[in-house]
Structures
1.
Amino acid sequence: MQKRTSGIHHISAIVGHPQENIDFYAGTLGLRLVKKTVNFDDPSTYHLYFGDAEGKPGTIITFFPWAGAKQGKIGAGQVGMTTYVIPTGTLPFWERRLETFQILFKKVERFGEQYIQFADPHGLHLELVEREEGEINTWTFGGVKPEVAIKGFGGATLYSAQPQQTAKLLEAVMGLERLGAEGDLIRFRSSADIGNIIDLKQTATERGRMGAGTVHHIAFRAIDDQDQLNWQEYVSAHGYGVTPVKDRNYFNAIYFREHGEILFEIATDPPGFALDESKERMGEQLKLPEQYEQYRDQLNRRLIPIEVRELD
């Protein structure tokens, strides 16, 4: 029996200075910092999570920020473009907002939709698209109110080293529906109302290089722990090397690198980001996994001071 993921859970990227990261995603884009923690493998740096008011799956972008990090190169083996979905009729608001913050953008059309494309301060490629689907984001910050706020992910564009192998994975293993092709892209869709569109570039580009401004991995949704174990067995049976389950506090994760060299994760929807903070106070305090709690004072001295602030 074929399994089907409902869509994107989160996307994780590498960026530069953490304050610049917060200023852009919270201050400019109006997203909520829903969790401030550390990189589990390198606790001397942050792991920052931004999403909608509740931090729901399908809205979360996460960052490993290293001040002075070497610039990466977007290419094969990576997510090339991260798409956010906004309410219908709000593209003019976002064009004005980007102009206010002197962010260059361009307009493009694909699959009958209008997009505005731009980059974050560290070179990550982003775009906005209007769609009716998806719940209104109730978060308000810095002049971005719910009627215009980013709802969550629209999807992502994948750059594969072996596009036909990646297409086979998306359809035959991940269970996405192939909608059609346009130009150099194949479009796939999942069942969720956000984070549901994957565009795959059909021609392989030059190999990407990990560093600031690149996506580290893309995560898809599992319903719960048992569903994730089923995914682990299912993906392994299709010939992919899958990691053991890793506890990420706010979800459990398994990883595999598909044949086009893109790192995929399958993450559980629960327990969510209100596990160690109330929904009202999420993102306000530095939250540490249990193994690092004893080093809190030391980490607080090493980590760069950061704050969520409204921008002029």
2.
Amino acid sequence: MTTITAMTARALPRAGDDRRDANAAAVLRTVLDHGPVARSRVAALTGLSASAVSRQVVDLMGVGLLREHPELSGTGTLGRPQLPVDVDTDRLAVAGLHIGVPYTTFALLDLRGRVLHRQEISNRGRTGFAVLRPLLARLPRLIAARRGERTVVGVGAVTGGTVDPVRGVTIRHNPLDWRDMPLRDLLREATGLPVQVDNHARALTRAEILFGHPAARRSVVQLFVGHVVDAALAVAGAVHLGPPSPTGDVGHLPVPDSDEPCHCGRRGCLAVAASDTTLFAAAAREGITAGPDRAGLIAAVREGDRRADRLVRERARVIGRALALLADVVNPDLLVLTETFALLDPVYLDVVRSEFALRSHLHRDADLLIAQQRGADALAVAAGAAVLGELYARPFRTLAS
């Protein structure tokens, strides 16, 4: 990267220096969890020697990942090793793109996953490469205009469907009419930055592990319900990636009493029974909204329209049944739901939980089911987490890419 200074370059590992990068990752992740924190505490939590921690801290400060807090040193023993350290949220940033059906979300995040800027860009009904053409032209200007004094170290791009993060390719996204879209190469050419590409459910899961509920680090299932219905699984902090790249395909779980046609040729698949496309179309058919429109249905729900409330509750019950099946198969410590109306009003999350408790054969406590906690920023954070997850796992190697 052209932005790495001479000091930064010295801190980066030599090829094959995996142990150093692993130790740096352990220190960085511990500071993320506990910072501001003294080096001695980092050593106790990681099992590394005090001298090893001090070396890693110096190197991580050199590349802009950590900083000292002299004002928090207190009255303890004097000396540099006693100065608390924390994640540096001022020098570096990552860009994130969530490419959805109605719009693309662009965001800039700091190293703690906090959104510094978020902007929604309408896709204007485009499909295929037409979705990307204006975005590729505009993205470098968006990044340059919003980074301020920060160095942007990478771009995360997430979307629905089947995504191969190793090749950086969206293999299949039916609503966008994408097949083998080389997303990473296109974005890297446009921005000149390293790019990480992933499925949005996996990225949401990675964000939960990094910045969310502590139980997610043991095991978590994430269900995303939008125009695309996706799920992801993580165990012991590792997000599952199956061959050839999907986590799985919950979209074709059968939903009783649904006869909505699916692109697979069958009827009643979860991907259509629970999708935003189906929900918004139903609202338009019943005259709740003038057309298939998210904002119109949200407004109707907020205004107390009983027909809107009924449609949203019906979908909530479908989601609850799907989550019960997933929980019975996987038995995770945590279930996370990312869905518009569960975020909008806790009453709809309660409907999901009630159906979940009724249908689960394991009779798990419905409190293990939570709604995504970041609200409107959820997908922006997920997009940035595609880069931040790599940065926290392999800090020097990621910065050297």
3.
Amino acid sequence: NAVFMNEEISGINVDEKIIAAYENLTREEAAKLAVSMSLEFIEQIEEYVDGLYLITPFNRVEIIRDIVNKYRNKK
């Protein structure tokens, strides 16, 4: 999906390091990486934003659940 977004959606640029990090991962490994990266991004921006809008591909709501739960537990 990172490659698709990078190539097909105008105005979205995904860093090559992010794309490379997902190469050759299983679905489960990719989900864990998504949660981990999301939490890192949230930490970097949380003092500058009032909230977040999270979207996952293919209705993968368990990824959102994991992000929210881990974020809440760190507070």
4.
Amino acid sequence: MNPLNAYTQLSRSAIVSLGRELAAWKPSQERALFGAQTVLSVVLAVAVAHALHLTNTWWAAISGFAVMQTSFQGSIERSTYRILGTLLGALVGTVVGPLIGDRPWLFIPVIGAIGGFCVYSGNGAVASYAWVLGGITSLLVTYEAHILGSMEKTASFAVLRVAEVLVGTLSCVVVAGLFHVVIEWHRRRRTGDAAPSPAAAAAPPLRELRAARMLLGLQSGLAIAIIAALTYTLNLPGFAQALVTTVAVMVLPAASLTSRDQKPVVQKMVQRVTGCVLAGALGIALLPLMNGKEIPCLIALSCGVWVGCHVQSGSAGASYVGRQFTIAFIMVFVQDHHWSADPLPALMRLEGILIGIVTLAAVMFATANLPFLPSADEASP
């Protein structure tokens, strides 16, 4: 699908789905429990990050949200992938970044190659989330190395990044574990047995995914290289979120990778923008009312996370909008290492997301019909 022709239709669909979800507001027990766990995970992550005086508290808060799943097993698996991906990505960035950071002619293609390889490898992989976090972390650390200029300073930045992710991820594990113990105890008292484990879905053959993986990896690499070049020449703001966007929206479920149709990517892009714009507008409007005070900020943050989780766990087609709304709402209210009514940091992060989307859209439009990539039929055995 031509991305430019799809944006209007998918934007309308995202808004309609969100409206349908909000109109049919039904906080079932399962959705209420998921929302409560996520709110507590985010609040715990913020509290621990503040206690440890971590630099980027919002990274910890987002980690506390991002790894929470509706099942304890799912939360543990996602937490493991996030930690492993972050550790490996930090290591790669610490080693590679200082070697190429002062050479733009080398830095730009290498950082593009890293991002493209991680997107290619993450699509269709069992540990897809680990590839996503590994790619994002390695890109962030590699880019920061070109500013810091030394291995020691780059390593310190990487350690802080890992610490922020660990705080958020472990907060999720603690909260999810406590809820799991209580829920299982209550279920056994009622039924005398544990709930059966869900069966794992079979993944399609990797050969069927080759064409889509090649295209997505190439497009991601080109977009990241362009963003890096613009950052070098124009001091582009919000680089971190532009990178996160470029990687996150290009990794798809295996079922969406059986052809070269890029509608699933365009849909994720549109829903990411929709969720972020709504959360940004609402959050920035609320910031002056909170006046940087801890308790009002925590209450507003908890309400925003709850609403986002409710939409995310719905079935009206707005799940990804809810997820992106929650992430953006956390970005607005959780500042670097203190509570603040200043909207500028949030605006910079949201601007980075929009820059990533615009760059990706341009690259997708230019490369959607590359003749040398195999079609889905050619990729099939």
